[in-house]
Amino acid sequence: MRLEEEEQPETMSQCSVGGLQQQQKVVVVGYALTSKKTKSFLQPKFEGLARNKGILFVAIDQNRPLSDQGPFDIVLHKLTGKEWRQILEDYRQTHPEVTVLDPPDAIQRLRNRQSMLQCVADMNLSNSYGKVGVPRQLVIKKDASSIPDAVNKAGLILPLVAKPLVADGSAKSHELSLAYDQYSLQKLEPPLVLQEFVNHGGVLFKVYIVGEAIKVVRRFSLPDVTKRELSKIKGVFRFPRVSCAAASADDADLDPSVAELPPRPLLERLAKELRRRLGLRLFNLDIIREHGTRDHFYVIDINYFPGYGKMPGYEHIFTDFLLSLVQSHTRNDRARNFLKA
Question: Inositol 1,3,4-trisphosphate 5/6-kinase ATP-grasp domain spans which residues (predicted)?
Answer without folding.
Answer: 127-323
